[in-house]
Amino acid sequence: MDLRDIINSIYPISEKSMDRLLSCSLELGLPKGHRLLEAGKIESDIFFIKRGIVRAYVSHEGKDITFWIGKEGATIMSLKSYVKNEAGYETIELMEDSLLYCLKRSDLYRLFEEDIDIANWGRKLAELEFLRAEEKLIPLLFTTASERYRVLLERTPDLLQRIPLECLASYLGITPVSLSRIRAKLK
User: Fold this and answer.
1) Which of 30, 56, 176, 184 is most buried when burial is the number of CB atoms within 10 A of its CB?
2) Are 101 and 6 in contact (CB under 8 A)?
3) Largest Cα–Cα distance of the chain, in whole Å?
C-alpha cells in the first residue's frame, strides 16, 4: 500500500502538505522475525505497513500474549514512547518479510508546528489509534470467544494463513486448544 494512500485514509491533506510528509519518510525492507520495537525500550517513531504483517505482544509469566495484529495500511507505534518518550511495554515483531514506511517523531513534531493540515492529520491519527484500542478492548469484555473468532473470519480471514494459530488464539484471548475446538465446531 502506498504511503500517500495510507496518509489520506487517515485524514486527507493538501498536496503541498503531502509532499512535506512524504519528503520526511523512509522506506525500510525488513525480514520476518525482526523486532521493530522491543519492550522496555523507547521507539518514538511511527511506521506504516506497505507490505507485510506484524504482531504486538507482551510477555507475561513466560507466555507471549498477542494483543494487536497489523497488516497493509496499518500504523505501528508505541503510544507510550511516542507520547511520553518513555520505554514501551510491547514488542512488535514482523510475521512476514515486510516493507515499512518510517516517519521520525522529531520531523512530525516540526511539521505539526509548521503546517495546520499535517497537525490536523496527526490529531486524527491519534483519535483513530485510541478508537482502535477501544474497539479491541470492549469485545474482549462482552463477547464470547466464538463470537470474536467469527468477527475475525468476517473482517480479516487472511490472518488464518498469515499468522500462527497460537498467536491468533492469544489475540482472541483464548488458548490454542480452545481455538481448535471453536474451529472444529464451525466446520
Assistant:
1) 56
2) yes
3) 56
Q: Which secondary-structure segment (H or E) carries 67?
A: strand 63-71
The x, y and z cell numbers of residue 31, run together, are: 525480514
Q: Distance (Å, rounded) from C-alpha 40 to C-alpha 50?
A: 26
Contact 27, 50 (CB under 8 A): yes
The SS3 call for residue 61 is: coil
Rg (CA), the chain: 17
Q: Which CATH number fits domain 3-142: 3.30.70.100, 2.60.120.10, 3.90.1070.20, 3.30.565.10?
A: 2.60.120.10
CB atoms within 10 A of CB 179: 19
pLDDT digits (tens, 9 = 90+) for 127-178: 999 998 898 888 878 899 999 999 999 999 999 899 999 999 999 989 999 9
> Model's pTM, two decimal places?
0.91
Contact indicator for 183, 150 with CB cutoff of 8 Å: no
Are 25 and 3 a contacting pair, CB within 8 Å? yes
